[in-house]
Amino acid sequence: MKKFIAGNWKMNGSLAANEKLVHELLDRVGRPSCDVAVCAPSPYLSQLQCLLANQDVIALGAQNVSQHESGAYTGDVSAAMLREFGVRYAIVGHSERRQHQAETDTNVAIKAKRALEAGITPIVCVGETQRERDEGLTDYIVRRQLAAVVHLVGPCISEIVLAYEPVWAIGTGKTATPEQAQQVHAILRKQLQAATEKAHTIRILYGGSMNASNAATLMTQPDIDGGLIGGASLKADDFLAIIGVAK
Ligand code: PGA
Which H or E run contains 88? Predict the structure, then answer.
């Protein structure tokens, strides 16, 4: 399966910084062996749509989508709106949103469904906190988070990208070992297999302090099909190095 490297810029960037970063990426990325996307803050989607026009190497992603279709939801951005700006992917259920915006498993599942309905591939994030891991709850948590999405989208589950992001590894410099990550990815793959015959085609990304030096080893694991990259996606050298080892 072709690997997938997605950058999650989070709440970073500016018109000038985005332009510089995207130009550097486009100048140097060549024809990578993997699929690539950058997930930008909403106000920059229009800028990014222009910067990424006339090429098909780097796709555009958003970092969230409303669970509502349209109407009186001040501050929300709908899937249909994202689509108008050439958005192909939308991260849903990132742990920072589950934590700070109190998004529940059900909210996340509805968001995934809305994205799919608009022709956007949701990148569904699951992952346990340090405390949950310490208490031996990792499998239970990630299975519960994925189950909500499987339950709501049914057979369309084969259209999603899944990302395992242990919360304790995000932005901490503390990466899951390839074995730790593979163990959880295998559990998720098994759960997908129970839901669809196409489970082997669903990409399961790892995210959490993935960088140029650990990416290759993580991606040699049988069920790690790419990465969701935060900090390292803001530096052209690092992001390109990760893309380079994603084969
Ligand atoms: P990080 O973030 O690579 O900075 O740890 C990953 C993510 O939150 O998607």
Answer: strand 87-92
Compute, in angstroms, the gap from residue 72 CA to the centroid of ligand 1.
32
3-state secondary structure 45-63: HHHHHHHCCCCCCEEEEEC
| Interval 53-85: pLDDT, tens | 999 999 999 999 999 999 999 999 999 999 999
What tokens does 220 get?
């040699």
The residues, ordered by sequence, that sit 6+ positions from 13 with a Cβ below 8 Å of its Cβ are 21, 40, 41, 44, 234
Q: Environment class of residue 41 by beta-carbon count within 10 Å: exposed (0-12), middle (13-18) or buried (19+)?
A: middle
Strand runs labelled E in 117-243: 121-126, 161-164, 204-207, 226-229
Q: Is the entire prediction scored with pTM above 0.85?
A: yes
Question: What spacing in Å lies between the alpha carbon of 82 and ligand 1's midpoint?
Answer: 22
222: burial class by Cβ within 10 Å (0-12, 13-18, 19+)?
exposed
Measured from the CB, is residue 211 less than 6 Å from ligand 1? no
- Residue with CA closest to ligand 1 atom 7: 230
Q: Which atom of ligand 1 is nearest to the CA of 170?
A: 5
